[in-house]
Amino acid sequence: MKEVILVIVGGGLGSGLRYWIGKSLNPIFENFYLGTFLVNILGCLLIGLVFGWSLKNQTMAATYTALLATGFCGGFTTFSAFGLELFLLIKEGSYLPFIGYTLLSVVLGILAVLCGIWLMRSF
C-alpha cells in the first residue's frame, strides 16, 4: 500500500510539472510543442538516471522506484517509459520487436487519436 501512495504522489507531482511546463513553453513556437518535447526528453533522461542508478548500485529500494520511475516519470510523461522499454529491447538484442513496438506504438497511437476525434465528431 505504501508503494501505491508513493506512485500517486509522484504521479501528481510529475503531472503538475508537465502541465506547467507545457503551458509555459508550448506557446513559444507556432508549430512545435517545445514544452511537450522537453518534457518527453527530460522524462527519458530522468528515468534513465533512475534505472542507471538502480543497475549500478543495486541498492534502489522499490519505494524509490515507485516514487520516481513509476510515479513521477509516469505522471511527467509516459514517453519516458516507452524510451526505457525500447532501450531494454535493444540491450536484449531484440531488434525485430524493437522495430515493431516502435512503429506500432507511433502509428497506432496517431490512428487512435484520429479515431477518438472521429468518434467524438460522429456522436
Automatic annotation (TrEMBL):
Catalyses which reaction(s): fluoride(in) = fluoride(out)
Pfam families (UniProt xref): CRCB (PF02537)
Presence of the UniProt keyword Heme in the record: no
Entry binding sites for Na(+): 74, 77
Location of the protein in the cell: Cell membrane
Main location: membrane
Activity regulation (record text): Na(+) is not transported, but it plays an essential structural role and its presence is essential for fluoride channel function.
Stored InterPro entries: FluC
Record key words, sorted: Cell inner membrane, Cell membrane, Ion channel, Ion transport, Membrane, Metal-binding, Sodium, Transmembrane, Transmembrane helix, Transport
Record GO biological process: cellular detoxification of fluoride
Family: Belongs to the fluoride channel Fluc/FEX (TC 1.A.43) family.
Role this protein plays: Fluoride-specific ion channel. Important for reducing fluoride concentration in the cell, thus reducing its toxicity.
UniProt name for this protein: Fluoride-specific ion channel FluC
Species whose genome carries this gene: Robiginitalea myxolifaciens
Name of the gene this protein is made from: fluC
